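Lecture notes, part 5. Sequence design as translation. It can be helpful to think of inverse folding as translation between two languages: the language of shapes and the language of residues. The source text, in structure tokens, appears below.
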């Protein structure tokens, strides 16, 4: 029998049925901290108890975000479009992260790297890995697109006496790690961030593949691409493509954890260096060096990289009023011919490059803000950071016309 999503439409708290997670807040992305010796610190550390992005940014950069792109992308000193001259086979994109993590170990800059490997016998089930060798790093290449409790490895870090550590992680893992950083007693902590949104548990990831793919059992790699479609690569080499507009959202609504729908750090703003693809043309990677150390990490990779200028095209603001209306009431799926036309227009006339990144990030900010306001109104002041209100200001009138209020109205930041 086909497994269904682990919660129903619009239900709250995906994972409360999992006994391992008992005693955690209703919102939990299973970052792993609560599996470690730092569990007693959860209330002071967890971003779903209190989002501390603003104070951590003050600590890291000595300032708030500037108006404009920093409100969406976080604070950065260099933004670049790059890729490996010689891509790493089997990597998610061109293998920048794998190469950098391996280099940090090769050069002795760190003693170990926290990564996400694959549970043996599966293709996508995540397995937190504390890599001590280049071979162990390489074995972790590629996405395991599911929640992975990587910070649970902080026990092993402490027991092994590791003093210089690198971590590759999602935004929630990185915020918790930054907040716990002082207690780790490390000489060095290098944080390489991946952008992340709409993550899912492993059973729900399997449900997603079963729902979306014509041959779910043979998918070995997939990515949500900047051309408004999902590309799935199969073991026999063929590629399947599903337009976003064709996703059966009625079936998929329930798969996203409440935590991921209450998350406001898509671009992983508290990392030293973010490596993703969102703001890049197809085939390229989007890189944001944030801290001084992040710039040094990028320099370590530079000899292996080619780059092209940052680019941007299209106008995201045109589609936003319709998107806001859709947040209030999901429209019926249009007929196939209309969907084909929309997919064509999105691909050829839609936002591209940085404008694509702005579009997707703003949409997720608006969607997640609306979710928190509806489902966890008592938490809004604690878990919605200020940049959400700043970044969504241009849409205040459209939002008010649909929802009768503007984001942040009446909320005193706690
Ligand atoms: C769940 C998820 C969602 C993502 N969403 C976006 C997005 O919307 N936009 C965007 O620009 N980029 C996104 N990324 C990042 C992007 O897909 C690539 O991972 C990134 O660009 C690095 O590519 P690469 O070839 O350099 O990585 P590789 O060299 O292949 O290395 C991939 C690294 O990702 C780490 N990793 C794999 N799975 C996980 C996991 N579940 N949790 C934490 N770390 C993991 C591994 O440790 C490995 O080091 C997402 C990644 C994940 C895991
Ligand atoms: S998100 Fe992390 S810190 Fe927060 S409750 Fe879950 S495991 Fe603990
Ligand atoms: S969407 Fe946010 S909360 Fe969910 S795994 Fe990604 S960074 Fe964590």
């Amino acid at each position: 029998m086909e497994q269904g999503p682990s919660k129903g439409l619009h239900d709250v708290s995906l994972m409360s049925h999992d006994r391992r997670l008992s005693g955690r807040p209703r919102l939990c992305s299973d970052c792993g901290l609560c599996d470690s010796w730092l569990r007693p610190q959860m209330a002071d550390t967890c971003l779903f108890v209190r989002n501390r992005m603003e104070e951590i940014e003050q600590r890291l950069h000595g300032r708030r975000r500037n108006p404009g792109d920093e409100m969406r992308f976080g604070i950065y000193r260099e933004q670049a479009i790059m890729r490996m001259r010689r891509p790493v086979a089997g990597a998610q994109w061109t293998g920048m992260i794998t190469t950098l993590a391996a280099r940090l170990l090769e050069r002795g800059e760190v003693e170990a790297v926290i990564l996400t490997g694959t549970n043996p016998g599966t293709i996508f089930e995540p397995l937190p890995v504390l890599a001590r060798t280049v071979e162990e790093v390489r074995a972790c290449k590629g996405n395991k697109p599911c929640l992975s409790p990587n910070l649970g490895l902080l026990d092993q870090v402490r027991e092994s006496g590791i003093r210089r550590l690198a971590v590759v992680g999602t935004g929630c893992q990185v915020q918790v790690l930054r907040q716990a950083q002082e207690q780790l007693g490390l000489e060095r902590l290098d944080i390489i961030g991946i952008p992340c949104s709409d993550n899912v548990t492993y059973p729900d990831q399997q449900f997603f593949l079963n729902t979306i793919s014509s041959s779910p059992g043979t998918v070995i790699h997939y990515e949500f691409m900047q051309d408004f479609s999902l590309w799935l690569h199969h073991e026999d080499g063929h590629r399947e493509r599903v337009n976003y507009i064709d996703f059966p959202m009625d079936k998929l609504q329930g798969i996203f954890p409440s935590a991921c729908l209450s998350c406001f750090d898509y671009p992983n703003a508290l990392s030293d260096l973010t490596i993703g693809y969102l703001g890049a043309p197809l085939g390229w990677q989007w890189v944001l060096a944030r801290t001084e150390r992040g710039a040094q990490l990028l320099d370590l990779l530079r000899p292996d990289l080619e780059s092209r200028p940052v680019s941007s095209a299209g106008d995201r603001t045109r589609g936003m009023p319709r998107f806001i209306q859709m947040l209030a009431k999901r429209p019926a799926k249009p007929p196939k011919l209309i969907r084909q036309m929309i997919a064509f227009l999105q691909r050829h006339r839609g936002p591209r490059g940085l404008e694509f990144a702005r579009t997707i990030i703003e949409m997720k900010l608006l969607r997640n803000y609306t979710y928190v306001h509806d489902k966890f109104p008592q938490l809004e002041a604690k878990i919605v950071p200020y940049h959400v209100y700043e970044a969504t200001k241009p849409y205040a009138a459209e939002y008010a016309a649909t929802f009768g209020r503007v984001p942040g109205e009446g909320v005193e930041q706690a």
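The translated text above is only one of many valid answers, since several sequences can fold into similar shapes. The radius of gyration is 20 Å.
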